[in-house]
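pls design
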């Protein structure tokens, strides 16, 4: 067994030097059964109660509901009605957790199977792949309720080794038509996150096979892949109620998740034209001015493959 007394002693000294109060014990369970009012919904009330319990604030339903209409309470910055002293208490608890994080990591890093740490304010979470119950009991004795211990499948050392292996092999992604943007450990999900430019199921499967994924890989993307389908055009004439050309600024944006694009055309000549639009549905907004007041009109168009939609939009007076 690894001898750990020196590290634990150092952590104890650091905790004593923090000069901050531990999080208050959670309030006793309280019913949230209370009819909603115009000031809040039942779901909001239950969310506020959960927030208050986490921070050890008064959390009985009647009191929390009253806070929604208390002029001394504010919903900034936590989106929960809090009195000024409660806002201060929450801020101090969060600061305490942020200060505690590196101290908790120093404690956990000596153990085999340490799998990472992160904040779930106002507490620190430590993950381990082995002896989790033992770690949980020891952490409770050192940190009280300010640290949560959870189990994990993969150690931080193993995840970091996988990151390094992918980093040195990043050129491989280009050979399969992909681009590796970044790779790093995601301790909260006990995974290595591989950030590639566009979603591609074949690339993901090939990467999982290449690196021997057993559940430790996850993927994120910059956006959808380039559009390889058909294209069309949109030609819109802008006129006033008398049928004469009118000035309007046109903005089209795709409403199809496969295409993330927005374009602008200034219709000074009474016409907005968009070439080479992906053959999906687009939303058009025309902004125009009447006596210094801004107005807008909206249209949706399904762009035909290799075709043109021609339309005339009359601006309301």
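designed seq:
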């Amino acid at each position: 067994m690894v001898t750990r007394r020196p590290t634990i002693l150092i952590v104890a000294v650091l905790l004593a030097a923090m000069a901050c109060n531990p999080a208050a014990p959670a309030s006793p369970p309280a019913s949230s059964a209370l009819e909603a009012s115009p000031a809040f919904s039942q779901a909001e009330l239950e969310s506020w109660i959960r927030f208050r319990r986490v921070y050890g604030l008064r959390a009985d339903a009647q009191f929390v509901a009253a806070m929604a209409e208390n002029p001394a309470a504010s919903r900034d910055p936590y989106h929960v009605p809090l009195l000024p002293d409660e806002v201060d208490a929450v801020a101090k608890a969060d600061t305490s957790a942020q200060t505690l994080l590196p101290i908790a990591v120093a404690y956990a890093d000596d153990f085999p199977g340490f799998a990472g740490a992160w904040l779930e304010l106002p507490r620190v979470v430590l993950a381990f792949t082995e002896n989790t119950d033992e770690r949980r009991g020891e952490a409770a004795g050192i940190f009280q309720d300010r640290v949560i211990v959870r189990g994990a499948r993969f150690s931080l050392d193993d995840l970091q080794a996988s990151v390094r292996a992918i980093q040195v092999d990043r050129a491989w992604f280009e050979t399969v038509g992909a681009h590796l943007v970044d790779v790093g450990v995601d301790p909260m999900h006990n995974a290595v996150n591989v950030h590639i430019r566009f979603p591609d199921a074949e690339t993901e499967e090939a990467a999982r096979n290449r690196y021997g994924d057993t559940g430790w890989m996850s993927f994120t993307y910059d956006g959808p892949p380039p559009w390889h389908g058909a294209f069309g055009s949109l030609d819109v004439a802008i006129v006033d109620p008398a049928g004469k050309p009118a000035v309007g600024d046109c903005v089209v944006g795709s409403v199809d998740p496969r295409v993330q694009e927005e374009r602008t055309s200034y219709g000074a000549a009474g016409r907005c034209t968009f070439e080479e639009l992906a053959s999906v549905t687009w939303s058009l907004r025309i902004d125009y001015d009447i006596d210094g007041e801004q107005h807008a009109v909206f249209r949706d168009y399904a762009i035909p493959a290799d075709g043109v939609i021609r339309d005339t939009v009359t601006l309301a007076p």
